[in-house]
Predict the structure.
Amino acid sequence: MYFLTGWPRRLLCPLRSEEEPFHIQPSSHRFYFGVLSETQLSIWFSRPSVLIVSYIESAKAAAQFGFYQKAEWKPDDSMIAVATAKGYILLFDVLGGGDDKSLYEPVYPKGSPRVRATPGYKEEQCAPALSLEMKKPVDLEAPITSLQSLQEDLLVCTADGYLHVLHWDGLGSNGRKAICLTTIPFSLDLQSARGGPSLDLEGVYIRCMEYCVTLDGFAAVLSDGRLGFITPLSNTITADQLQGVWAADVNDGTCVAVNNKYRLMAFGCASGSVLVYMIDTTTGSMQLSHKLELTPKHYPDMYNKTGPVKLICWSPDYSVVMVTWECGGLSLWSVFGAHLICTLGEDFAYCSDGTKKEPVKISSMSWGAEGYHLWVLPIKQERKRQEQQQQQEEEEEQEQQEEEEEQQQQQQQEEEMATPPHPSLQAGILQFHFIKSALTVNPCTSNQEQVLLHGEDRLYLTCGDPSQVHSAADTHPHTHLHPPDSSPLHHPPDPDSSLSQGLSTLLGHKHWHVVQIHSTYLESNWPIRFAAIDTAGQCMAVAGRRGFAHYSLFTRKWKLFGNITQEQNMTVTGGLAWWKDFVVVACYNYIDQQEQLRLYQRSSNLDNAFASVTKLHSDTLLLNVFRDMVILFRADCSICLYSLERRNDSPHPTASVELLQEVSMSRYIPHPALVVSVTLTSVRTETGITLKAPQQACMAESIMLNLAGQLIMLQRDRSGPQVREKETPANNKKLLPFCPPVVLAQCVENVWTTCRSNRKKRHLLEALWLSCGEAGMKVWLPLFPRDHRKPHSFLSRRIMLPFHINIYPLAVLFEDALVLGATNETVLYDGLQGASEPLEALFPYCTVERTSQIYLHHILRQLLVRNLGEQALMLAQSCASLPYFPHVMELMVHVVLEEEATSREPIPDPLLPTVAKFITEFPLFLQTIVHCARKTEYALWNYLFAAVGNPKDLFEECLMAQDLDTAASYLIILQSMEVPAVSRQHATLLFNTALEQGKWDLCRHMIRFLKAIGSGEMDTPPPTPTTQEPSSTGGFEFFRNRSISLSQSADAIATGKFNLQKTFSMPSGPSSRGRDGECPENMYIDMMLWRHARHLLEQVRLRDLGCFSAQLGFELIGWLCRERNRVARVEDFVSALKRLHKDFLWPFPVIPGGSISSPLKNGRCRTVLSTRLLKSQSADSLLNSDMDTAPPQAASSNNTWLDGLGQRSKDTDAASSSHSNQHSPQTHDAFLSLLTNKVEEYSVGSATDLTETSSVVDGDWTMVDENSSTLSLSQAELEHISMELANKGPHKSQVQLRYLLHVFMEAGCLEWCVVIGLILRDANVIKQVIGFLDSPEVPQDTVQSVQSGLLAVDTWVSTDCLGYKPFLNLIQPQLQDLMDSAAEQVQPEAFQPSSQSSKLGGSEGPGGTAAPRPEDSRGATAPLGLALPSLEPAGSFSRPPSEDCPPEQTEELGEEEGAYDCTVS
């Protein structure tokens, strides 16, 4: 509603004076302010805020009249009355200067369009020069307690119990009437018979009184603290025509302020609370509407310590009220009691170091024009304490003297007494700045889904423009980068599209989009009175004193009237609204002197030539738009409906306006000013015919009027004969009349409804939303029969549901089930502390934050309370797709649980079981319950689970639904509610499932959890597992973000080897971790991990095994060493190879139709490569100096062949990586192996990214380039290169396979090494493995398994996958060795049959099952070799002349062995 912003401004009085101002009184339009000090009357102007004139009383006159006390303006601002301490009324004429005399004038640069020719130039922009002349004083012979201006009269209350009616002009004896208070009869209501004069009013006078126009009476506080309301029974105020009403049971009233728009009287009390009364229209009695008081919940330290209420001040639009107390502080409430701001708490009351500040005490305050400022006169704080004590003594003396002078003065008078003069700093006025919601004065439908606030010179919007949401966070529009107007991003929104903006734009950030109002418009038309925004949130319009202007977020430009006279000749009276791309304005035309309804098109120039104008017969007070209709509320209490139609016939689109219907409301509305808002809606109670056609739901069915807080609904009367729509011609379709009004709700501040329709969210879109001040919000919700069944006769069609929210609602997002609002935030600034504290230290800096709140859970709960579960279910299902729906469900459970579980009395009909049953309808049920439980305290869990079910059952449901994260949350609850054995049992279940599904994070948590249960450390977080060998900690993660070459990994494995040897010698296996090793929990966990690893290996899930080891730090090598001859065997080589291809997304190799061999001629660049290798090795800083390149010998001592393996793989990779730097810097990692060619050993480069190894010198690159450039690649060679690339799997898989190869090598699982060597086509690996098979350490069955496996692979290759053939040929010598050695060890008969059948199998086509001959199988064994081509990323050399056989030889081989057809099978 209203929000404080920035720091207050201090206005210093230019006249040096020892007197302190203590009373401020605004003129009727609040352009002038009268400020009183003891002997001075000053008049200030509002904009600029300057002193215009000051009248200083002479000492002689001051002695005669006494000090000034109060002031009151005549309604036309031509006179001021001042009351003095000795019972005199002084009247001053306020005289304007001559036509050309101004006190302050703006100065314009040359060539400015604003020249003196502008009509109304004088009064619009200059501070006028005024003068004050005193007229003859009036002596009332008694102290004056209250002044009140009526139209022609001035009402004065005196301390002798009289009411004086003075005429402003003729102040002779004929212009004066005195009424004694005791002659006015008072009763509790107007119906009781009029008794005689009230005897209990003897010696009582009116302490404070204010006139209420719309109630036509006076709200008064009597000197004994009673509250009353005095009504004149006729037009003239005479003694026998006044009647009084008491407020029962109140006797501590201090002050009063009336609200004319809502017919409320706010009485301040000595207790510190404000009682707001209304008059009951039937009996005339005073009824308490609501109270404004600080609650102990929000202000525990200030509750009941504020002192009596000192002043109450309603804002000019009557939508908020400001209250201050004797002890200081300001507090702001909305009209029906929603609390907005209080300066007695938080940053207002405390410094940043926690010390309490003195609240600012206020002697008088007044709102400025349109409520943008609050003018406050503080009681000076700068005096030192000694001065204050002196002053108290002086005050007492002064009061005694004054009491002697005027015996009739009463004690209650002390508050009104002026403080005596005291030398102090320059007098100052504080000006607080406010921004307010556009709904306060212009409540039109287009503002309803956008929050629009306006300050005196700027607008605040929530919506950034949708094309660049992020930029809307800037505070000033001109800082945005935006494309030119022609940009396609900025086409205007389609008016027919669904206008609910994306949540991202409305909620994406906390910042406002701030638009500065055009200074040219502002300086001549300040203050801004109306503001409106279109439904898409892209265009704004503002109207000030004259004319209006509009702004577009697309173009970021303001449009003003080109012709200033047109702007100055109209004033907006009934507000503005947007309809499609037109601004609809209800205005008064000064030239024709009549009311008009005008529509201006947004894109054309702002000029009356392009406007469509309709004459109106009466003044318009309110305007609103619904679809293509305009509804006007007029000063004669009638409502007019107009239809709007867009016309495109002329070059500029125009709109035609046609009167549809007039409805007179004068029977129901006592005063037109009481109507707060008027809205057309499609809402209806549906008591008449039920709506068959969906299009009818969009028609204007009813009118909603907010009459002084009462929401009145007028529905169309469908009871008469219904005419079929088809029968009536379109042009003379007569609109149905309206039924008599029905009151829907009381205390309504704002109403929201929408004209959109959505079949899925009918509940939310056809509802009516009300904001009711302290009572929160209400929604009038439609109830629908389910599945088009016949509705129950007893079920009403709509239901009013109240609910509380924590923010002040400013907009409702209907589909998104959200309320948008704003709230005041403060920022402390303690920079300048000192003797004279600046305002910045006294007050924090105020900002306004955007807020939003979900309300769906309140509504669902209210429906469940009323046994409308079916409706609640339909509503919830329509919103289940909202992102915060799970949060809604949690909130609902949480709120009900907190209320019921903490209630002291037993609850007869608990709601929690109903809510629990309701939530089970949604898939979120399990997680909602557990999230709610974990956010509430443990003491309430039993109550919760008694309603929703046993947590063990819920845990099992989670496991069945595979929702492991939720199950883990239930585990925490089980741990608290059950014995450790139960939680361990459930934890084991969950751990196994998590392992199976590869939820590694969860597995790590479960390991910690299981340990914590075992060690009894329930509350402390369990220790994380201790570190394992370097070889396995790296795991896959080691390769995931590689920034080093593989040689380091080889080093790590070489060092890891020693740890392994130690580990193998220990009986406890991988779990030997020092102190933890003996713990049974660790053994238990290890058993589960081993079981899972065994399971993975049995199922040939190597990739999962690698992830499992890397993620959980599982000591894979140690475990594999123990399982080497058990589960780490390969049963079926072919299926294992196929499974690896599938798991690692590795393509089966294919061979081109051309040739198998590498087309590069042997020896051409061999020398280059070899020298490069040596040079690069010498430059590689990462390599160990002790690297030996000779193949290790298999020794007979224990485990040495393992060491040899580790060392060998290290050398291989080190050499390969160091060499590989010389090729193609654009790819990532490289792995190479040594390939043997006859005598010479060397390595071929694949590619490594230059950034990943730093061993390459620039010179190397250039040399390689020079040499490489001599190679000429033929078409066939390129084809060959591309073919090799096609046969290679993803880079990540290659890294992972390499790692697994290392692991299996380290652990001595030779069969797996063969399989991985095959898929990588690394001849070197195969060669190594076959070399190791000769070692006596290797069991005989392993050798046999490798042999038979390779034979099986060869068979499969010959029939199903010819792509492997070239590689098998490559490693044939090793295979031959293997078979020979096997033949020596085994009886030759064993291989006879297989060799015969393999001859057959070789010639069979695909599908042949026979085993290959031994010579062939030699080729098949090489699965462990690293055939280079498969490892080379794009762009590197494919197959340099380093293959095992020179090309000629390979071709010969191909001819000899008929099995090798070079076609793709």
Observations:
- The chain is about 30% helix and 25% strand.
- The longest strand covers residues 2-12.
